[in-house]
Amino acid sequence: MDPLLVLLSPLIPILPFLALPLILLFRKRTNGGAVFSIGANFISWLIATALLIDGIFGGFDEVIEGVERVVYTFMENPKIEFGVLIDPLSVIMAFIVSTLALLIQIYSIGYMKDEPGKHSGRYFAEITIFVGAMLGLALSLNFLFLFVFWELMGLCSYLLIGFFMDKETEKPGTGPASAAKKAFLITKVGDVLLFGGFVLLMLEFISAGVPDPLNFVSGKEAVAGGVFAGKENLQTLIALLIFGGAVGKSAQFPLHVWLPDAMEGPTTVSALIHSATMVKAGVFLLARCFWIFEGTNALLFVSVIGGFTAVFAATMALVATDIKKILAYSTISQLAYMILAIGVGGVASGLFHLLSHSIFKCLLFLGAGSIIHSYHTQEITEIRGLHKKMPITAITFVIGALGLSGIFPFNGFFSKDAIFASALARYNYILDPLYLLLFVIAVVTAFMTGFYIFRAVFMIFSNEPVEGHLEGEHHPHESPGVMTYPLMILGSLVVLMGLGSLVGMIVNIGFNPASETNLHHWLEGLVIVSHDALDPNIVLMLVSLIVAGSGILLAYLIYSGISESQKSGFVGKIKLSTRSFKTTMVTSFVGTKIDYVLVNRYGIDALYRNIGLGLNYIVGEILYRVDKRVLDDLIVHNVAKASLMFAGANDSFDRKIIDEFIIDKTGRGFLRLGELFGRLQSGITQNYAMGMFFGLVLFIVIWLFGYFYGGF
Amino acid sequence: MAYWILSAILLLPIVAAGIIFLLGRWLGDNFAKYLTLIVSVVEMGLSVIMLVMYLNEDTAGFRLLDEIPWIPDLGITYIVGVDGISLTLVILTAFIVCMAVLASWTMHGENLSAYFALILLLTTGILGTFLFLDLFFFFIAWELVLVPMFFLIGIWGGPNRKYASMKFFIYTHLASVFLLVGIFATYITSGLNTFSIIELAGHNFPTDLAMVIVFLGILFAFIVKVPSAPFHTWLPDAHVEAPSPVSMILAGLLLKMGGYGIIRILLQVLGDVFKEGFIIPNVPVYWLVGIIGLISIFWGGFVALRQDDVKRLVAYSSISHMGYVLLGVAAYVATDNIIALQGAIFMMIAHGVISPAMFQLCGMLQHWAGTREIGLLKGLPKSLESTSVILVTFSFASAGLPGLMGFVAEFLVLIGVFQWDTTLAMITVLGIVLTAAYYLWMLQRVVFGEKSEFLDEHAKPVPNIEYVSLVLMFIVVLVFGLYPAPLLDMMALGP
After folding, report:
1. Which whole number is the average pLDDT over B390-402?
2. Residue B1 — very low, low, confident or very high, per pLDDT cuts 50/70/90?
3. A312-337 burial string, b = 16+ CB within 10 Å, else e?
């Protein structure tokens, strides 16, 4: 790696933070400070890109073990330093984060144009902290700073979900304020588990004499050196606690409930924080400290949670009608894929999917934002004829949807296939039928993915009139260039990354960052399954393609419009019969029940809400009553009474106080106290003060006396 | 060699208080105000000089000692000195008093000269508690604090001030009786005929039942002051009624006297009892201290959830946060890991800066928004934008946001607790979620939503001078949150 670049690398996370004071100072003159936020992001992006390019052309081979650039010592005992860790994982992560953040920030200029919160500087101030924190997380060299940035992102997520502060909703537990609180608290549960995990790890390392107990590099060496030999249970516990953090941040079951609600924030925020970057932090964390998980049973747990969440979230996406909610459930489900991949030992596959998902989901969210911006609704049942009104948005949206479904040759196809291959390889390796089941679940999820995203696509493309809406009520139009160019760039990235993977698969060209083979090479040591197991498997690819394709086909049959020419033809007939079959199913007894369960998200949100309300209104109330009734009324006041009985009557002032204090229970005491203080206030204060002062003079005189003659 | 600096820091405020008492009547309130500000700034300057002198001296244990035999027959000595713990607390005192004086700047009312004189008197009391290394003088300083505080709450407080000031006085006075008895018992048991903390700290005390009872008596005195559950009910009342600058001193400094006492006397002097004493067989004393801390964290947190007055909420949050101090000290005794003790002290400093800021904000809400009722403050940013931003910032600081001081403290304390007992630690970390919960629940009702009608009628613009102290406090919280090493180094020099 170029030494100059390594020297500059701490600026990547620091610059966005430096933009914050500038935004706050000049927000009025710069119309919200976008220039500072985007400028800082741009410079960070330049450095990150330079690092990536350097890395691809050989630099990564030098830093596979990680190169540290320490900025300062945070504390000595335990030794914790602030700085950056340069290795392939961190550079790739920093690059993808800074790229997407840059595009989204540019897009925001158009999208947030009419928001008062943008002009006041609040939007870009919060975004720039977020970008700094996410880049800091990607480059952090120890657990503590990873956690610091992790929590800072949580703060930004809270603030930005609650961006539309004035919005109030009738139903309790909904609206931006509730959603923001929910997101912060639910992820906080995961955070404290992570916190506990790394503190336990640190204590173990300290007792083993590891000099830099929270550092990733030395931690990896220590574990490889056998710190946990004979303490596998402790290692598993630590791994599970750390995984708890990932479950919260990456919205996995059972802490997934916050992410759909988080869609209350502006769509740009959903794109940046709640799909492209922050929610990836959990996956990143697992990759970053995979050495703790390796060889423990915790990995089994990780893969089961991943597999279950993948299909679980996808079911909820099937019935959602809010376009952002569909994308949110989809994000949960896709993150679960990455978790699953890591659980089966395919860290490279998981990260490969992380990269492609970041791009296509970011594209989908920005596309959705463009649609919402123009149609003023998020309900897919109310959006019609998108491709006629907004051609650029429509095309890019379809590209994103194809990427998400995993259709050849878009990027999602290759990364999803890699995950399938990892799961299958794991099964072939240890022949545990559980892994075969996980593989099947992953494939089923792929079918559902194709279905739910194209359900949305076909609905918003169709021309059927919307019930209750007059034709031409809105005049949707294509978004301005500042919004469509980012869409086009992201769309071409989806295609290019897919083509790159294809080329990389065939001839394995060395400089392609998107190729899984290269990721595999750079992330060496993070992978359990052998390399050969991941060689292109044509059968598997065909299976995945057919499954995703049939999902899309089903969505086409049910949701696409039926044109005049089709009506009498074969296609029209099939469409009609599928639709009537679907209607029968949905309106049947079981169908309605299932629908009810899915729409209510399996009741988990309500359960958590009731737990929260219970703690608040029951435990809080009981303890508060104990304070008032038991501690104050019963004990304190009676102790005061008792102490009067025991107290001598020597000090009349004290006596008076206690006397008054007891009588105050009867109510009359207050009157008499009032008189006492009334007198105090009306001049007697000075007398007391004077009295006190002369006491003090005496004190000082005695002191001086002691000072000069104390020697005797 | 005797050093003058500590005596100067200690006595300057009381001398100034005397001048104001004597001359305030003729020179007026403005004179008192400016003199107090000057004195508090000079105190800041002196504490910086103290820091430099402290760092220049290179001896183990206490430094900058100033020692005068007082009543040699009884072993009473005027002795002041600092180590890493009291040094940071003295600097904190000088800083917070400065902030409180700034926050009093726009105060109106009669007799302000007496108010400022009492603040100065209070300062000497607090500084004395931290500086005296003689139990006799420690007790005098401890008691000296009560009197001005009683008047400050009782005269300049809110509508229910009489009740609150009485309750404060009775509670802490009762605790003082236990402290006094405990000090004498310690004095007699040691048989050294000295009240000097330095000498007593070197003595090995028996760990029998009698000594455990003495320990528990002194512990009672200190946890009333901290305050910990179940002896905390005076604090919310005192805070709610006290004027906000007084609340700043109360939360920022008075509560620290309890924590400091636990470290200086229970840990340093009666350390043997702390470590080896048993309340009942198999239950060591430090478990009791740790459990009291843990209960306080949750008790304060849960009750804070139910509060409708921002100031009462912050008061309960103080109870919760100070629980970490007890827990950290107990973890230190249990594990002998200095990190836990550093965490406890760091928590005192962090809370000593963050909670005054919160209380100043409460005062600003009262004054400029017209209320502290959470229900009436809905949509606050529409009227008081900057105040809302600062409220959110300090709420998160108090909830332990990483990058700020509170987090460092929680981190260090929890290292100790994890080393001590993993189960206990996992329960404790859930307290962090609880802290976040009550602040977010408050913010949801204050910062979000349409502007309330009440604010429409009552809100007034805030003058910029009010922000000066808040910004200064935030800078401190941020700087030491990002770079705690120098502060921790200082504390590492402690016991």
Report:
1. 92
2. low
3. bbbbbbebbebbbbbbbbbbbbbbbb
What is the rounded average pLDDT of the residues A138-146?
Answer: 93
Find the closest chain A residue to B438 by CA distance: A616
Q: Which residues of B104-117 are buried (b: 16+ CB within 10 A; e: fewer)?
A: beebeeebbbbbbb
CA distance A238 to chain B (A): 12
Q: Which of A212-221, A703-712, B183-192 has the lowest mean pLDDT?
A: A703-712
Q: Which residues of B are less than 8 Å from A193 in CB distance?
A: 429
Smallest Cβ–Cβ distance between A203 and the set B70, B418, B450 belongs to B418
Q: What would the 3-class secondary structure string for A60-113 be?
A: HHHCCCCEEEEEEEEECCCCEEEEEEECHHHHHHHHHHHHHHHHHHHHHHHHCC
Nearest CA distance, A302 vs chain B (angstrom): 21
Sign of torsion, CA A49 A53 A54 A55? positive
Is A632 touching B (CB cutoff 8 A)? yes
The whole-angstrom separation of Cα A632 and Cα A242 is 43
B411 has a chain A CB within 8 A of its CB: yes
B429: nearest CB among A120, A192, A670: A192
| Assigned token pair, A606 | 């309500």
Q: What whole-number percentage of chain B has pLDDT above 90?
A: 47
Residue A660 scores a pLDDT above 90:
no
How wide is the angle at C-alpha A14 spanned by C-alphas A8 and A20, nearest 5°? Answer: 145
Q: Choosing among B231, B298, B305, which should be mutated to test the A contact, i.e. which has the most A CBs within 10 A?
A: B305
For residue B16, give Cα distances in angstroms to A548, A693, B40.
82, 11, 10
pLDDT at site A312: 92
Residues 431-450 of B with CB under 8 A from A: 432-433, 436-437, 440-441, 443-444, 447-450
Instruction: Collect all residues of chain A within an 8 Å Cβ-Cβ radius of residue B440.
Output: 158, 180-181, 184-185
B167 has a chain A CB within 8 A of its CB: yes
**What span, in angstroms and rounded, lies between the C-alpha atoms of A410 and A26?**
43
Is there a contact between B11 and A700 if contact means CB atoms under 8 Å apart? yes
B22/A693 Cβ within 8 A: yes
Predicted TM-score of the model (pTM): 0.89
Contacts of A411 (CB under 8 A, 6+ apart): A355, A356, A359, A360, A403, A493, A494, A495, A497, A498, A501, A514
Average pLDDT of the residues in A267-272: 92
Best of A75, A242, A651 to disrupt the B interface by mutation (most B CBs within 10 Å)?
A: A75
Does the bond joining B230 to the residue before it have cis omega, within 30 degrees of 0? yes
CB-based contact A179:A161 (threshold 8 Å): yes
Name the β-bridge partners of B71. B76
Interface of A with B in 215-244 (CB under 8 A): none
Phi, psi of A139 (to 5 degrees): -100, 0
User: Mean per-residue pLDDT for B205-220?
Assistant: 89
B340-387 confidence digits (pLDDT tens): 999 999 999 999 999 999 999 999 998 888 888 888 888 888 888 889
- What is d(CA B331, CA B289) in angstroms, rounded to the nearest whole number? 9
If you count DSSP H runs as helices and E runs as strands, how many of each does chain A have, helices first? 34, 2
Residue-wise pLDDT tens digits, B446-468: 888 888 888 888 888 888 888 88
B440, A77: Cβ pair inside 8 Å? no
Residue A311 pLDDT grade (very low, low, confident, very high; cuts 50, 70, 90): very high
d(CA A369, CA B429): 38
CA distance B415 to chain A (A): 6
Query: Does residue A687 or residue A124 have the better pLDDT?
Result: A124
Interface of A with B in 48-107 (CB under 8 A): 72-78
3-class DSSP state of B227: coil
What does the H/E/C string look like for A257-268? Answer: CHHHHHHHCCHH
